[in-house]
Amino acid sequence: MKFSKKLITWYLQNKRAMPWRETKNPYHIWLSEIILQQTRVAQGLPYYLSFTKAFPTVFDLAKAEEEKVLKLWQGLGYYSRARNLHATAKYIAEELNGVFPSNYKELLTLKGVGDYTASAIASICYNEAVPVVDGNVYRVLSRYFNIDTPINTPKGVKEFKELAIELMDHEEPDAYNQAIMEFGALQCKPKSPYCIICPLNDSCMALKKGTVDQLPVKLKKTKIKKRYFNYIIPVINDTYTIINQRTGNGIWQGLYEFPLIESEKTDIDTIASHSLFTKMIKDKPYDIIPHNNEPIVHKLSHQHLYTRFFILKIDDESVFEASEEMILMRDVHSYPVPILIGNFIDSFFSKELTSS
């Protein structure tokens, strides 16, 4: 039995039950693939269910406010995916009358849809014989053929794509693509794969040569940048706080955060003498209390954020020049925020509201 048929046979016997596997609706397949990019299935499933409940059709998603989309996305990270998702929904609803492109080439023109996502939608929804190549597929192919070309290089991308095209099952492209991804997730796992019971173990070159644990090869990432975030958390009359929307093209665009001072120096004197702090406060009494002495390290793909929160207690709201930005503390949970701030809000403001 050839490679593709062995995988499909394994898949039909071992596949997990997933709601997106019960439909050929391109809206649902597209939604699941965008959510599952760089996200484990166990983490992504609740988000998929939330999105399909809140936005049953692409028209519902297109009509939604961006803040609602970002709020539902909160915790998944890579927020550009959510913004692209929303923009593409608008394009499909308004320009294509709600009809998704029906082939790989046209799907690639959609914002936020790359080679992998276009291949998945085209094969699953339209039975087009185009192979998916994701982390699971790289791992299966590199081990089975004992290929040590780094997968995150132009040469590696080209080599594995050509191999994937060669192996593609033209009779059952939808089943084959889902099979090889599921096989990589469940059987040919990153660590301690189940080689003894693997249906491909009689022909896996890496198993024969003892290189399973060394593959796939991936070049080291770019150097991680360290940043130092110091958030000022105004607590005004035990009733109000201040939260602002991030602008620009940096991380967390469109999400909300508390007033931020980015500085490696985190002592109270440095914070209190910073221009952002002095602009925000007039000459009135206040207390500033460090919430966490040791920084919380929040790891992004190319950045590590060393974060401290400072609680600013003030009894006179007139000290704030930007008083129009004040919100009720009880409303802070409704704003879309990065998970780093979301965790702080859940712990700190829940206690504050309970005690007040």
TrEMBL record:
GO MF entry, a single one: oxidized purine DNA binding
Q: Which reaction does it catalyse?
A: Hydrolyzes free adenine bases from 7,8-dihydro-8-oxoguanine:adenine mismatched double-stranded DNA, leaving an apurinic site
Recorded superkingdom: Bacteria
Report whether Hydrolase shows up as a keyword of the record. yes
| Cofactor(s) listed in the protein's UniProt record | [4Fe-4S] cluster
- Database matches in Pfam families: HHH, HhH-GPD, NUDIX_4
Q: Which UniProt keywords apply?
A: 4Fe-4S, DNA damage, DNA repair, Glycosidase, Hydrolase, Iron, Iron-sulfur, Metal-binding
Domain (HhH-GPD): residue spans on this chain = 35-186
| UniProt GO BP | base-excision repair; mismatch repair
Give EC number(s), comma-separated. 3.2.2.31
The yes or no answer to whether the keyword rRNA processing is present is no
Q: Which residues are listed as membrane-spanning?
A: none
Q: How the cofactor binds, per note?
A: Binds 1 [4Fe-4S] cluster.
Query: Record's CDD domains?
Result: ENDO3c, NUDIX_DNA_Glycosylase_C-MutY
Query: Which residues, by range, are in coiled-coil regions?
Result: none
* Family as reported in the entry's similarity comment: Belongs to the Nth/MutY family.
The UniProt function text for this chain reads:
Adenine glycosylase active on G-A mispairs. MutY also corrects error-prone DNA synthesis past GO lesions which are due to the oxidatively damaged form of guanine: 7,8-dihydro-8-oxoguanine (8-oxo-dGTP).
Q: What is this protein called?
A: Adenine DNA glycosylase
